[in-house]
Amino acid sequence: MRVYNFSPGPSVLPLPVLERAAAEMTDTNGTGQSVMEMSHRSKDFKPIIEKTEALLRELMGIPENYRVLFLQGGAYTQFSMVPLNLAAGETPGKGKQAVIIDTGIWADKAAKEASKYAAVDVRASSKDRAYTYIPKAPASKPEDAYYHITLNNTIVGTKWTDIPDTGSVPLVSDISSCILSEPLDVSRFGILYAGAQKNLGPAGTTIVIIRDDLIGRAPQWVPVMLRYDTHAAEGSMFNTPPCYGIYMMGLVLEWLKNLGGVEAIAKINREKAGLFYQYLDSSKLFFSPVEKPFRSLMNIPFIIRTEDPEKKSELEERFIKEAAAAGLVNLAGHRLVGGMRASFYNAMPVEGVRALLHFIKNFENGNA
Ligand SMILES: *Cc1c(COP(=O)(O)O)cnc(C)c1O
Fold first, then answer.
1. 323: which of 44, 142, 285, 293 is 20 to 30 A away, CA to CA?
2. Separation of alpha carbons 363 and 357, rounded Å
C-alpha cells in the first residue's frame, strides 16, 4: 500500500511517474536498454536530456541568455561553487565581497562555505526570532560580487515573498525546496540552483540555471569540476552526468506540464497549504511558529502548545507514531528545531493533505 509521504527530502514523487519508470525500466523508448545502461553520449540518451532541458525551460520560462546545467553534488556543492565562480580571488583566500541573507540553517551553511573563498557580509538575519520571518533585504553595494538568498527555507518553513532588487549585483538563490512550486521570474536572478530530490525527481541531480555573463569568471586555480565554464562548454557532458536522474526529472516535468504547468500547480499548492494553516491557526493543540506573511507553501512546521516539556515530547512521539500507523509518514520536525513538519511538495495530492487533516483533528479531539 502507498503511504502519504510528508518527507522534506528525498520526497514523494507522482505515482504515474513511478509507474511509467517501472514500465520502461528494462526497455526505454524501444532501445532495448534501461536508461541506466545507456552511454551518456549515445543517440539514445541525447533526446532524453534534451527533452528534460526543453521542458524545464518551458515550465520555468527560462530566458535564452541563461544556461541550464545538470550537475551532481547536491545543492550543498553550490554553496562552494557560487563563491568559487563569482567571488574567489586570483589567489586562494583573497576573495571579493559576498552577501548572504541569513534566513536559516541552509543559508548559514552557504555563508560558512562562502567564507572560505570570499569576504562574507551577512547583511541581514532573522536569527533573532528563531528564523520565523524573512528580514527586509538591505540594499546591494557596488563592491558586492553576488547577493544570496534562500528562497524557501525548508527547515524553518519560511519563504521570500518579495524578490530583492539588487541592481547590477547578481542575485543568487537556493530554490531547492520550492522550484516549480509557484511562478518565478528567472530574469531577476543571476544564478538559481536546486537539488532535485524535493520537487524534481530522485536525489543525485542538481540543477543550475545561470546567466551567460556569469560563466567563465572563476580564477584559474578553481578545480575543473567546480567551474561553471567546464560544464557549460560541454553541455553538462564534461563527465558522466546523472543520467537516470535526468530521465526521471524529464518524466516529472512531463507530468507537471500535463497537469497545466506552474500556474496550475501553484493553485493546488496554495490550496493545500491554506487548508493546513487554517487548521493550525484555529487549533487549541498545535500552532505554526512562522509569522503569517512569510509562511512556506512547501514545508510547514507545527508545534504542540504546552509549557510542559515532558508532555510535549510524549505527545510529539505519539503523534508521529500514530500518524505513521495511519499511513501518514515522515512528519518529524528537523532534528535541530524539533516539533513536527509536513512537507507538501508538488507531488503531494490534496487528498494527502485532507487525510492528514482528518488524522490531526481526531488526534486533537482525543488529547484535548
Ligand atoms: C535540501 C536542501 C539543501 C541540501 O541539498 P543537498 O542536495 O542535500 O545538498 C540545501 N538547501 C535547501 C534550501 C534545501 O532544502
1. 293
2. 10
Q: Is the CB of 76 under 6 A from ligand 1?
A: yes
Residue 157 CB less than 6 A away from ligand 1:
no
Average pLDDT over residues 107-127: 97
- 321 burial level (CB within 10 Å; 0-12, 13-18, 19+): exposed
- 76 CA from centroid of ligand 1 (Å): 6
Report the alpha-carbon distance of residue 106 to residue 120 in Å, rounded: 15
> Is ligand 1 within 6 A of the CB of residue 363?
no
pLDDT band at 63 (very low <50, low <70, confident <90, very high): very high
Q: What is the pLDDT of residues 178-205, one digit of tens each?
A: 999 999 999 999 999 999 999 999 999 9
Cα 258 to middle of ligand 1, angstroms: 27
* DSSP 8-class letter at 338: -
Pick from 100, 174, 185, 107: nearest CA to 144? 100
Question: Which distant-in-sequence residues (6+ apart) come within 8 Å of 169 by Cβ?
Answer: 99, 140, 141, 142, 144, 145, 146, 147
What is the pTM for the complete model shown?
Answer: 0.98
Residues paired with 159 in a beta bridge: 152
Gap between the Cα atoms of 150 and 127, Å rounded? 14
Distances from the Cα of 2 to the Cα of 10, 346, 348, angstroms: 16, 17, 12
Per DSSP, the residues of 248-275 read HHHHHHHHHHHHTHHHHHHHHHHHHHHH
Q: Are 285 and 305 in contact (CB under 8 A)?
A: yes
CA–centroid distance, 44 to ligand 1, in Å, is 31
Pairing status of strand 158-159 against strand 152-153: antiparallel
Which listed residue (106, 144, 255, 272) is catalytic?
A: 106
Q: How far lies 344's CA from each of 161, 165, 272, in Å?
A: 18, 29, 7
Q: Give the position, in ligand 1's atom list, of the atom nearest the Cα of 73.
A: 9
Active site residue 255: no
Nearest CA to ligand 1 atom 2: 176
